Amino acid sequence: MSSTGYQGESVTSLESNSASKVDVLALLERGRELSTPLLREVVDRLAPPMDTVAAYHFGWIDAAGNPAAGDGGKAVRPALALISAEAAGAPPEKGVPGAVAVELVHNFSLLHDDLMDGDEQRRHRDTVWKVHGPAQAILVGDALFALANEVLLELGTVEAGRATRRLAVATRKLIDGQAQDMSFEDRERVSVDECLEMEGNKTGALLACAVSIGAVLGGADDKTADALERYGHHLGLAFQAVDDLLGIWGEPAETGKQAWSDLRQRKKSLPVCAALQAGGPASEKLAELLAADAKSVGKEEEGLTFDEEEFATRAALIEQAGGREWTSEEAKRQHATALAALEGVDMPDSIREQLTALADFVVVRRR
Length: 367
What we know:
Blueprint lengths: L10 E2 L8 E2 L1 H20 L6 H8 L18 H12 L8 H22 L3 E2 L2 E2 L1 H5 L1 H20 L4 H27 L7 H26 L4 H28 L2 H4 L5 H4 L5 H9 L2 H16 L11 H13 L2 H19 L7 H16 L3
Antiparallel strand pairs: 1-2, 3-4
């Protein structure tokens, strides 16, 4: 299995030899179609110019304010929220407020992350802070976070209260993960375990919430929601492992980011951590380069920048030390663990197949 080989419209389960196929793109599109009307409605509540800035971020308009059919992201989280409602025996529409809430929190984090990381491109166009300025990126991110809680609490049900609590915990963990990620950039070494803990917070927590929140809104008990949450947590770790591979070796035309994106930001992602922990000549050389980086942090204004050849050299060292292969295998391990979490959940076979296909999609995607 390749970590970047997904090209078709359907996925055959990696876990079985079943000939059944699930149209993953149709599931993702359903997530968009059912959640976007409510998402637009709540975003329209924002005061100008935040409503316009948010619309630009979601790809609904271009920088000049004209309607656009931009890339709104993969929509994995909304799709999972709707499927989780069905796993609880409810119609997918029951999961829509949860899907929207999770998507709002996810995009709150993207707006702030892009600014903190200095990323100038997302989804193949300029980021919000680059177009509208850092202040608007911060304000709109804050506003989306507030809307996420509002859209759940206005349901006024016991299930909505339970869902809001899960979202609050996931958001706190997400922020913990971002703080950990930033602290790693100035360190010479980060262990694989530390990296996995950070990624479990930064990515796993919100995906775990997405897979449980629809079920909670659909009336599932905590035992069912917790099992779905475990699936989502490990799916998030698989998702991030693939993201880490794409952050170094992904094609800019497909990822929408610069080449060597994570290396430019000195991120201690899984391939880097695994390479440093492996030992050997390539690992030691990489460690020397990163130690020199740590001493030069904050001195970019003095001209300490790298050319493309330097990034290519570092990527090659990571691969030679085994970081690329280890991360690809870790994505597969987390994928298998995610599917194992579903074994104790009573759900229709068709829903189980959909969750399995989405897990497969996450591990073999190209962007």
